[in-house]
Known about the structure:
The structure is a single chain. By secondary structure, this protein is of the alpha/beta class. The longest helix is centred in the first third of the chain and has 25 residues.
Amino acid sequence: MVTNLPTELLRSFVAIVDSGSMLRATERVFVTQSALSLQMKRLEETVLTPLFHREGRRLVLTPAGQTLLPRAREILALNDRAVVALTGDALAGPARVGFVQDFAETLLSGVLARFAQLNPDTQLQVRVAGSPELLGLLEADRLDTVLCMGAADDTRAARVVPMVWHGEFALAESEVLPIAILESPCRFRDAALAALERDGRPYRVALETPSLSALRAAVQAGLAVTCRTSLFLPERAPLATNRLPSLPEVAYVQRTNQTPHASITKLAQLIHTAALEL
C-alpha cells in the first residue's frame, strides 16, 4: 500500500527546521504551536518513525528527519511549480526577502508595505541580517531576493556609494579616536580598522555591538565615531576633517534566485528601484 505524504505537513516540517523552533515556525505556516505539534505527530505516524528529538530546549533532526528533509524540499518545490503552472501569476507560497539593517526602515515602510497592499494574497517573509548570512540563505534557496552590502566593483551592484565617517567633530580631533563598530563579519568594521591602521591613527574601540540601532545611539550620544554610508544618519552631515583617514566605496548589491516567480521578479524590481534612490 502506497503511503502519501501530505504537503501541508511537509511544509510545516521544513518550516520548523528552517526557523529553528516550533514557535518561530508558527510565523511561517500560520498555525498555532499546538496545531504544529499535532501536525508533526501526524507526520511521524505517517512515516512510522520519529523525525525530531530534543536536546535541552532544542529540536534536533533524527537520522530519519535528516533523510526526509531534502526530499521534502523537492516535493514542495514540485508542488509549488505545479500550482504556478495551473494558476499563472499566482504565487504559491511566500515571498522571502532579506536585507541588511541599513535598509530596514526604508524597505519595511516603503517598498514592502506597498507590495503587500498591491499583492494581498502574497505572504511576505522578511529576514534582516548581515550580508554573508543573507547570501548564504539565498544560496540555500531559503530567500528569494536580497539587498545587501558588497564590494564597489561587484557586477551586481544596484548602486555604489562612498563610506563616510559619522560622529562629533571634537571626537575626531581626539588624540586617541573612540570608535563604534559592529561585530564581525562587517564590511564597514573592516574598512574603518584598515584605514586607521594604514594611516597610523591611534584609536580605541568604545563600542562593539551586533545592533545598528545601538551603534547609532552611541554616535548620536557623542560617545564615538563610526564608519557607514550616508543612510546611517541622513539628517546629519558626515564628518569632514583631515584627522580621519579616507575610506573606500561600497555597493548596494541585489541578488535574486535564478528562476524567480513573476511576483518575485516584480518585488525585486521594486527593491532595485528603491536602492537607486537611497
